[in-house]
Amino acid sequence: MGNRGGRATGAGAALWLSVLTCVWILRFQWLFFQQTLESPELPRSDLWLMLADELLGVEAIAGGEASADAGVRFLWQRVPILGGAGALLLLALAYGGLVNEICLVRLPLSRVERLVIVAGCGLGLLSTATLVAGLLGQLTQLALFGPAVLCGLVALGLRLRRWRDPVSPAGVVHATSGGDDERAWRWLALLFWVIGIPFVVYLVLGAFSPPTDFDVREYHLQGPKEWFLDGRISYLRHNVYTSFPFLSEMLCLAGMIVAGDWWSGALTGQVLLACFQLLTAMAVYSTGRRWFGGAVAWLSVLTYLTTPWTLRISLISYAEGALTFYLMSALMLTLIVVRQPVGRIRFLATMVVGLLAGGAMASKYTGLIQVIIPVVLTAVWKIGTQWFGAAASEGAVWRRAVLQEACCFAAGVLLAMGPWMVRNWVDTGNPVFPMAYGIFGGDEWNEALNVRWKRAHGAPEHQLSRVPQHFLDAAVRNKWTSSLLFGLGMPAVLLWRRRAEIRVILLTASWGFLTWWGLTHRIDRFWIPMIPLLSLAAGSVWLISTGRVYRWFLVTTIVAVTVFNLRFCTLSLVGFHVGLMDLDAARQLTIRSDIQTLNQQLSGNDCVLMVGEAEVFDATFPVVYNTVFDDSIFEEIVAAEPAGAGGGDERPADLIRADLRARGVTHVLVNWGEILRYRLPGSYGYAEFVQPVRFDRLVERGVLTEAECLLRSDWGQMPERERSLVRGWDGWEELVRGAEFRSVLLYRVK
Fold first, then answer.
1. End-of-domain residue from the set 521, 546, 574
2. Count: domains in the chain
3. Dihedral sign of CA atoms 490, 496, 498, 499 in order
4. Residues 604, 570 share a domain
5. Which residues are CB-neighbours of 293 under 8 A, at least 6 positions away?
6. Which end of the chain is more exposed for a tag (fewer CB within 10 A), N or C?
7. Residue bearing the bigger pLDDT, 166 or 522
8. DSSP alpha helices (H): ranges in 165-293?
9. Residues 355 and 480 in one domain
């Protein structure tokens, strides 16, 4: 009787939890789809109308890029690029295979888990090997392939030896989530294959898209391009961003080496970087499958893969794709390792955890706070629980084991991140240049630049009253998010007491949001690493109730939102998706008109000094440029006083001309539009020495010819605050001719 009462009480609690979850999901979906996106303005509800029109056969609003130069006949252009990416992936698997044979053979892992870890470690080591080869001035195919092939042969030898003396790791145990889970997950797996595989093909095709993003064309691909053309990796004092850890960018450089060309090599690298999204999806599936059951695994991976951010990060060569993967894979392996008995197997696996976590920081400095710290805290929590549960006589053994694990983890992190820190230490005297200037200093930095940098890259405010607004910006208003992430992810709190893994996932996601809000300048892509965690949380709500009505409600919601996301991913606002376009035509489509003009007019003997312009990846001619956070090269050439000293005097004309000649400069391009953007209140700022009157005087003194206008805009249509700022420039009248603002001017050096 009491037992029946307990079951009734449990069923009643599950009913109320499922009702509460459904109410939250419905309310959140209503809020989400009532939003209107900005730039361009598009109500989300209108997209449902587009879908209805298409279902009824009515012509809908065009979403993607249309072109006559498109079709299956252009697939052949992608074969060499895909082949190069495949070759690099094999090299990565050779490195990762050696790590597996040395450290992970006895660890109980599923095939998918092992593939994720092997590929992740291998890509990180391939990146490091490319860095070392570049620093030695050996950016050649032999230097790229030789070490990887050697590691692959050693791994093969260890594998053959192990076959003669087999070692069987413990079996992999997968969780179940209810009596009907095994039946349900098969249907959900079928749903994923029907929806997911075509979307994966669409995602991979998008990775062939020519770059359009400013940061990508300023340093993510521009840095590797310069090193490839120079044949070595050297310190680029005109581009401070290339001193960042460049794990993913090294893979683009490796693509250039394999292709023997910086343009097609960049696309080769982009295709390889798209693998990070696919590997993250595998890590999401593996984590869900191991701890929560097959149904949760398939729902989670479907949620992650069809979130528009996943496609967008495959179209753009950002570092967040790699960072996201290393967070997910490091956490996945941590949850496995901390359940192993103390010993050699656990210590070696902990080193691999450190290698993955270090890969996150080698992708981006924020990996320290977004990945390394939460992974360490997770391990400390789990180890501490085991330690306190051990007998008092075992205390000394545990203390020694914890110290050994810490050393193993640190060794893995240093293996991944150490080469980047050593490189910066040698180049600048600061191992994490340009960060932590107040601690390490740096020969190539100063306090004025540091103040500008911190102001530009810090949060504008920390008002607790605005936290709900920032949360809604990320959860609801962001263009490329999915309503499933927070709509289904938040009710996972109801499972807090059921499994420790749920707590780890939710706490790590919360830590990610907290650090995004408190320690960054809150660019939306900086919280991309939370997406796989939120996807797992969203999938886990399947466990709240075994009721058939509840689960059909979840499946219906997920299918409906997935259809919406798939349609949304065909819109151009997700990013430029090349589809099956002619790659040559697509390349020209993405190059700015002034750069196109110069590509056509200038030869390899010409060299352009770029002033206010750093988006130079598409230039096929030599350039001299600096980013906004580097000393102005124009000021160095023209100013009588050292750059940044604030003086107004100019050097004699013959000395300026001689300096330009020594640098090989034949033309000077000034992008006043970019300078205006930098000088707007709240922006980065720009060297005050650069004024229109400087160029007028250089023309008068016979150093430069009269300017040719390459880009112009409507002066009357510019916001008044921008026009007011321009009027404050010395000699601004030369930039305004009638109703036109001459935003890009080209001068020839006499």
1. 574
2. 2
3. positive
4. no
5. 174, 175, 176, 177, 178, 181, 185, 542, 543
6. N
7. 522
8. 181-206, 214-215, 222-230, 247-259, 262-292
9. yes
Residue where a domain terminates, one of 541, 574, 607: 574
Phi, psi of 106 (to 5 degrees): -90, 0
Is 608 found in the same domain as 567? no
The residue type at 68: A
Give residue-wise pLDDT tens across range 696-723. Answer: 999 999 999 999 999 999 999 999 999 9
Rounded CA-CA distance 350/412 in Å is: 8
Closest to 274 (Cα-Cα) out of 206, 195, 330:
206
C-alpha torsion sign, points 258, 260, 266, 271: negative
pLDDT at residue 687 greater than cutoff 90? yes
The Cα-based distances of 280 to 287, 431, 566 in angstroms read 10, 29, 19
Specify whether the CB–CB gap between 244 and 457 falls below 8 A: no
Residue 400 within a domain: yes
Same domain for 635 and 567, yes or no, is no
Residues 611 and 660 in one domain: yes
Q: What is the pTM of this model?
A: 0.94
Rg of the chain over Cα atoms, rounded to whole angstroms, equals: 28
How high does pLDDT run on average in the chain? 90
Tell me the CA end-to-end span of the chain in Å, nearest whole number: 101
Residue 127 lies in a domain: yes
Whether residues 494 and 643 share a domain: the answer is no
- Please name the helix (run of DSSP H) or strand (run of DSSP E) that holds residue 671, with its range, or none: strand 667-671
Mean pLDDT of 607-622: 97
The total number of residues written for the chain in this structure: 750
CA atoms within 13 A on the CB side of 546: 10
Q: Answer whether residue 654 is part of any domain.
A: yes
Mean pLDDT score, 194-215: 94
How many whole angstroms separate alpha carbon 681 and alpha carbon 147? 50
Contact 741, 713 (CB under 8 A): yes
Q: Give residue 49's pLDDT.
A: 78
Higher-pLDDT residue of 178 and 296 is 296
Cα–Cα distance measured from residue 28 to residue 32, given in angstroms and rounded to the nearest whole number: 6
Beta strand ranges found along 102-209 (DSSP E): none
Domain that holds residue 695: 591-748
Are 500 and 527 in a shared domain?
A: yes
Per residue in 326-353, pLDDT tens? 999 999 999 999 988 888 999 999 999 9
Residues 291 and 320 in one domain: yes
Looking at residue 458, what DSSP letter applies?
S
Q: Is the pLDDT of residue 170 over 60?
A: no
- What secondary structure does DSSP assign to 52-106, as a single string? HHHHTTPPPPP-S---SSBSGGGGGGHHHHHHHHHHHHHHHHHHHHHHIIIIITT
- Type of residue at 511: W
Task: Assess contact for 398 and 390: CB atoms under 8 A.
Answer: yes
The pLDDT of residue 3: 52
